[in-house]
Amino acid sequence: MSKEEMIREMKKRVCAANLKLPEYGLVTLTWGNVAEVNREIGVIVIKPSGVPYETMTPEDMVVTDLEGNVLEKESLRPSSDLPTDVVLFREFPEIIGITHTHSVQGVAWAQAGRDVPVYGTTHADNFYGCIPCTRDLTQEEVEEAYEENTGKVIVETFRDRKIDPIAVPGVLVRNHGTFSWGNSAMKSVEVGKVIETVCEMAERTENLRRQAGEPIPQHYLDKHYYRKHGKNAYYGQK
Amino acid sequence: MSKEEMIREMKKRVCAANLKLPEYGLVTLTWGNVAEVNREIGVIVIKPSGVPYETMTPEDMVVTDLEGNVLEKESLRPSSDLPTDVVLFREFPEIIGITHTHSVQGVAWAQAGRDVPVYGTTHADNFYGCIPCTRDLTQEEVEEAYEENTGKVIVETFRDRKIDPIAVPGVLVRNHGTFSWGNSAMKSVEVGKVIETVCEMAERTENLRRQAGEPIPQHYLDKHYYRKHGKNAYYGQK
Amino acid sequence: MSKEEMIREMKKRVCAANLKLPEYGLVTLTWGNVAEVNREIGVIVIKPSGVPYETMTPEDMVVTDLEGNVLEKESLRPSSDLPTDVVLFREFPEIIGITHTHSVQGVAWAQAGRDVPVYGTTHADNFYGCIPCTRDLTQEEVEEAYEENTGKVIVETFRDRKIDPIAVPGVLVRNHGTFSWGNSAMKSVEVGKVIETVCEMAERTENLRRQAGEPIPQHYLDKHYYRKHGKNAYYGQK
Amino acid sequence: MSKEEMIREMKKRVCAANLKLPEYGLVTLTWGNVAEVNREIGVIVIKPSGVPYETMTPEDMVVTDLEGNVLEKESLRPSSDLPTDVVLFREFPEIIGITHTHSVQGVAWAQAGRDVPVYGTTHADNFYGCIPCTRDLTQEEVEEAYEENTGKVIVETFRDRKIDPIAVPGVLVRNHGTFSWGNSAMKSVEVGKVIETVCEMAERTENLRRQAGEPIPQHYLDKHYYRKHGKNAYYGQK
C-alpha cells in the first residue's frame, strides 16, 4: 500500500473512532478527540479542533508529522490537545491510538483529584491496578507549554509510580479529563468508555458503602486481568 | 420437531435475548451474555465470547452439551462464563435461561458487597426477599476453577441461606456483577432489567432516607409477590 | 357521537397516553398504566394487565363500568390497579385521566416515605404544595382489598391533610409508586413526567445542600402556580 | 436583505435553536425557550408559550419590539419569560441570543441556592469564574412584575459582583432555573448545555471529595479560558 493510501485508511479509522465518542455518550458539543499514529511513515492523524461531530468526514482529519507539524496544505487546524498526544506517542512506543474526553464520570474523579480504586472485576478486566490521577501542573508548566506539559505530567505519573501503560491504558489528568490509549484508534475509544463506566460504578459503590472502600482482593485482580490479557487469556475469539 | 430444528429455534431465542441487553441498557461494549438450556436433548446454547452485539446473528450462538463441551465443529468460543451457567443449570433444575451482566447499578451493589433490601413493591413484585450478594471466592477457588466456582458460590449462597431460586431469581456475585434466571432466555434478561431498576431505586431510597433504611412490612411483600406469582396471581393475562 | 364511537375514541386516547409512558422514560418492562373515565356514559377505559408496550393497540384497551366490571366479552384482563382508579374517579369527581407508574425517581421518594418539598418553581408551576406521600396500608387493608384500599388511603391523605386534588394532581403511595391525574389521560401522563422530574431535582437539591432543605418562599409558590393556573394565568396559548 | 427577510431568517434560527433544547436533554414537556434580538431593526424573536416542540415551526415564532410588544397580528402568545429577556437584551448590549431552561442539574444548583464553583477545566473552558446564583426576589418584586424583576435581579447580580456577562455567559436564578446567552440563539443553547454538564460534574466532584471542594488553581482558569477566548485563542478553526 502506498503512503497516500495508508494515510487515507488512517483518516477513515480516526474519523470512525471520533464518531464513536458521541455514540458512547463520552462527549458534549465538540469536546473530545481521537488520534492515531503510524511511526513507520512518520504520521499522526487527529480530529480537527472545534468541528461538530454531525458533519465530520474522513477528509476533515488533520495529518501531522511525529512532532505535530501539519503536513497538508489545505488542512484544518488540529485538535489543541495534539502536543499532549505527541508526547504520549513518543514516550509510550507501544500505543497506536489515543482518546481524550471530558466525559462526566471521568471528569468528576479528575476534579476530585482521586485515583479510581479497583473496586471490582469490571475494572480488573481492563486495568491492572487503579486508574491513576496526575498531579496538577504548576503555573510555570501551564504558561510555558500547557498541552505538551500535560503529556509530560502523564508520563511522569506512570514513570514515578512504576505503572505500565499497557497494563493501565488510561489516566485522569487532574482537574481536566481522561486520556486513554490502545493498539488502535477505536480501541482507545473503547478504553475511554470503560473508564467512564468504571468511574460511575466506583462512585456508586462508595455511596453504597458510605465509607472509604476497600479494593477487591489481589487474586481477583490477577484472575480477571489475565483471563483477558496475555498469553493465557481465554476471553474472546482466537 | 427434530433436534436440529429445536437447536435452531434455541439459537434464535438466545440471540434475540442477547440483543435485548444493549436495548435495555444492561451492557457496555461486549460485556454480558445470555444462555438457554434444553435438558431433554442435552444442549446449552450461549452467546460467543467477546463478539459485538451490532453484528451478532443466531448462527454465531454456541452449542454445548450439559457439561459445557462445544458440540459444533465450526463454532466460535463460548462466553467465558459458561462454566458458571453449567453449574446453575445443573443445581437449579427449574431454570431454563440465565443472564449475566456488568450493569452499572447491579455492579455498584455487588462491589459494595451488600444484599439489596426489599425497600418497596417494585422489588416485591419480582423477588420474594432481598437480592442476595455472595461471599468473595477464596484465592484457591479463583485459581482452581474460577468460573465454575462462581457457580458453586452462588449455589452455596442459596443453600446456606435457604433461599428458593424460583422465588428469588437472581443474585449479585460479590465484586463482580449480576446473574439472573427464569423459565426462558428472554425472561432471564427481563429479571436482569428488574435487578438494575430495583438497585437504582434502592440506592436513591437510602440517599433520601440518609440512614440505614427499613424494609417494607412483611404483608406488603406477601401481597405484591403473590399477586404476580403462584396459583392466586391476578396480574397479567390468563 | 354514538356511545360506541365515544368508546372507540377513548380507546385511542388511552392507548396513545399509555405509549407516552415508555417514551417519557416512566416505565420498565410492562409496568405502569393509564386510564380515562367518561362519567356520562358510565365507562372507564384502561390498559390491559401485563401487555408489552411495543405491540399495544387501541383495541387491546379494556372497557369497564364505573365499578370496574369488564363490559366487553372478548376483553383482555384490565390492569390490576383498576380498583384504585375506580375509587379515585368516584371520590375526585373533577378528574378524567389517571396514570400509575413505578418510575425510578418517584419510587425512591415513595420508598423513603417522604413528601416531596416545594424546592423550586418547577414544582410550583405544577403543584400548589408538596407532593404528599401516603401512609402504609395496614396488614388488614392489604389482605382485604389491596388495590381498592390503595385508592382509599390516597383519598384519606387528601381529605385529612385538606389537600385539593386539582391543585395537587398527584401522590406518592408509600413504598409503592406514583399516581397522577388530570383532565385527560394524556394530561395525567404529563403530570407523571413532572413528578419524576421534580423528584430528581429535589434529591439533587438536598444532595447539594447537604442538609434538610428549606422550601421556597410562599410568594414564589403563589406566583408560579397562579401564572399557569386559574383565571389570571398567562402561560400558554389562550 | 429586507427587514421581512431578516425576520424570516431570525424565525428559522430561533426555531432551530429551540429544537436543540429537547435534543440536548435540556427540557421536559414544553418548558424552556430561546430568543434572539436584532437591535438595528428593533426586533426580538422568541418561542411561543406552551407549544410542544414536536410540532413547532419557524412560523410559530413570535416577533416583538425591544420592549416586548407583539408586532404581528396573527401571533401566538410569546413565552411568559419574555420580559426577562427584554431586560437582559437592554442591559447586556453585547448579547444576541438568550436561552432559559429548567434543566435538571442546573435547577438542582439553583434550588440549593449555590454558585457553581470552578472545579475543572471543562468549566474554565467556558466560564471565567463561578456560575453565579442570584438572590431570591422579594415578595414585592414577585407581585409587582415578576418576569421583568427576574431580569433585573440577574443584572444586579452581575453589577454588584462585578461579573462580566461576556466572560460569564450564564446564571442560575435562585429556586428557578438557568439563563444563558451568547452571540447567537444557537450559541446560547450551547452554553445552556455547558451549564448542565458542568453542574453535573460539580455535584459528582463534591460527592467524591465528601467535603467542600477547592476550586482549581487560578493559572488553570486563565489558561483554559483564554485558549478558547480572546485574541490569543487557539482552539477551533480560524
Automatic annotation (TrEMBL), chains A, B, C, D:
Molecular function (Gene Ontology), one example: metal ion binding
Family: Belongs to the aldolase class II family. AraD/FucA subfamily.
NCBIfam families with a match to the protein in the record: PRK08193.1
Domain Class II aldolase/adducin N-terminal: from-to ranges: 12-203
Keywords, comma-separated and alphabetical: Arabinose catabolism, Carbohydrate metabolism, Isomerase, Metal-binding, Zinc
InterPro entries (UniProt xref): Aldolase_class_II_sugar_metab (IPR050197), Aldolase_II/adducin_N (IPR001303), Aldolase_II/adducin_N_sf (IPR036409)
EC number annotated for this UniProt entry: 5.1.3.4
Function, in words: Involved in the degradation of L-arabinose. Catalyzes the interconversion of L-ribulose 5-phosphate (LRu5P) and D-xylulose 5-phosphate (D-Xu5P) via a retroaldol/aldol mechanism (carbon-carbon bond cleavage analogous to a class II aldolase reaction).
Keyword Nucleotide-binding: no
Gene3D superfamilies: Class II aldolase/adducin N-terminal domain (3.40.225.10)
Gene name tied to this protein: araD
Keyword Metal-binding recorded: yes
Cofactor(s) essential for the protein: Zn(2+)
Example of a GO cellular component annotation carried by this entry: cytosol
Reaction equation(s) it catalyzes: L-ribulose 5-phosphate = D-xylulose 5-phosphate
Name of this chain's protein: L-ribulose-5-phosphate 4-epimerase
Pathway where it operates: Carbohydrate degradation; L-arabinose degradation via L-ribulose; D-xylulose 5-phosphate from L-arabinose (bacterial route): step 3/3
One of the GO BP terms on file: arabinose catabolic process
Pfam families in the cross-refs: Aldolase_II
